[in-house]
């Protein structure tokens, strides 16, 4: 992990009376929730994401912003929010760190009973955290609660229906089975957009999956680790928003761009993504706290289901692999 100066390691907080709770005197009786917001050069949409978090009806929360070493106006914006609201803390790497390293830094700086991630270009409805926490409190066995996601246009603003793509079909995941192998089967078969990653986790469970891997598909592997550790619930309400724009991380995440994003040289096997992720899923199952029988069942799910789901990508990945080798 890149070194940080003494100044950037210190979280900036406002005076204690700078942001009074907006939901009455019983806010402290609610579980403490940490919202982790990793960012790198996200000034264009950052304000919208931060305001969405600070407007949550569940006010017993902290917003932890982890800056991977931005070179735009991100630092100025973050320091402004940290000085204005005691719930906001901001840390900044002194040199660029990759996306998964920054996500991990954000998670490690949290202290809540529950944790969720919000991307610096995405948004959530004001009731998102409250509804997810209510679901956790109603069922203490849940490891993750997430909502239905809609895509939003580049120019979308909070509170507006303009720019919301109502034709977008989010993943529909039924992950409440008490069988780890059944949950893993459902995840592998039906996970496409990976919006579930930005749900509200039981903090002990998500921390148990560290460290995050620095490779394309690390969020899928993390979700696989989560479903082997506990049941997950998707809320039917549309409470999460995913912004579509030219600079979003998930676009064109291959080759040299991927290596810049993860801040490391990727092994050749990473360019055969389906095979690479197959082995990563195997490793996730082996390291999960499962019985021997459940481990064998989950390994069987990965061995059978993953190749079937990914077979349509093999030709493109093989072409990319050959192009990379020819360029050496």
Please explain how this structure is put together.
By secondary structure, this protein is an alpha/beta fold. It contains 12 helices and 9 strands. Strands 1, 2, 3, 4, 5, 6, 7, 8 and 9 form a 9-stranded mixed β-sheet that branches. It is globular and about 50 Å long. The two termini are 28 Å apart. The model is unreliable at 1-26 (pLDDT under 50).
Relative strand content: 15-25%
CATH class: Alpha Beta
**Global geometry:** globular
Tally of domains? 1
Q: What is the structural class?
A: alpha/beta
Instruction: Tell me which CATH architecture applies here.
Output: Alpha-Beta Complex
Give the biggest beta sheet: 9 strands, mixed
Write the layout of secondary structure elements.
Layout: H1 6-9, E1 33-39, H2 43-54, E2 61-67, H3 74-84, E3 88-92, H4 99-108, E4 114-117, E5 123-124, H5 128-138, E6 142-152, E7 164-165, H6 180-190, E8 200-202, H7 203-207, H8 218-227, E9 231-243, H9 255-262, H10 273-287, H11 292-310, H12 314-326
Parallel strand pairs: 1-2, 1-4, 2-3, 6-9
Antiparallel strand pairs: 4-8, 5-9, 6-7, 6-8
Helix pairs in contact: 6-11, 8-10, 10-11
């Amino acid at each position: 992990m890149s070194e940080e100066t003494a100044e950037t390691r210190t979280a900036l907080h406002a005076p204690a009376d700078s942001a009074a709770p907006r939901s009455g005197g019983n806010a402290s009786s609610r579980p403490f929730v940490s919202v982790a917001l990793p960012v790198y050069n996200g000034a264009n949409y950052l304000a919208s994401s931060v305001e969405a978090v600070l407007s949550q009806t569940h006010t017993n929360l902290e917003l932890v912003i982890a800056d991977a070493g931005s070179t735009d106006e991100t630092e100025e914006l973050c320091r402004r929010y940290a000085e204005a609201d005691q719930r906001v803390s901001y840390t900044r790497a002194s040199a660029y760190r990759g996306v998964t390293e920054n996500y991990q830094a954000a998670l490690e700086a949290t202290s809540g009973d529950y944790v969720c991630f919000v991307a610096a270009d995405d948004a959530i409805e004001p009731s998102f955290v409250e509804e997810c926490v209510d679901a956790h409190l109603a069922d203490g066995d849940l490891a993750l609660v997430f909502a239905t996601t809609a895509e939003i246009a580049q120019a979308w603003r909070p509170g507006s229906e303009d720019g919301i793509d109502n034709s977008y079909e989010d993943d529909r995941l039924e992950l409440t089975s008490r069988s780890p192998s059944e949950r893993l089967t459902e995840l592998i078969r039906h996970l496409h957009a990976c919006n579930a990653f930005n749900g509200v986790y039981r903090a002990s469970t998500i921390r148990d999956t560290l460290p995050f891997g620095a490779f394309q598909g690390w969020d899928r592997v993390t979700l696989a680790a989560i479903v082997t550790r506990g049941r997950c619930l998707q809320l039917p309400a549309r409470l999460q928003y995913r912004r579509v724009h030219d600079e979003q991380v998930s676009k064109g995440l291959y080759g040299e761009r991927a290596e810049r994003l993860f801040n490391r040289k990727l092994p050749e096997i990473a360019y055969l993504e389906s095979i690479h992720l197959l082995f990563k899923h195997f490793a996730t199952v082996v390291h999960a706290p499962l019985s021997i029988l459940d481990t064998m069942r989950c390994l069987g799910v990965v061995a059978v289901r993953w190749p079937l789901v990914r077979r349509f990508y093999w030709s493109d990945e093989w072409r990319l692999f050959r192009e990379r080798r020819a360029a050496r």
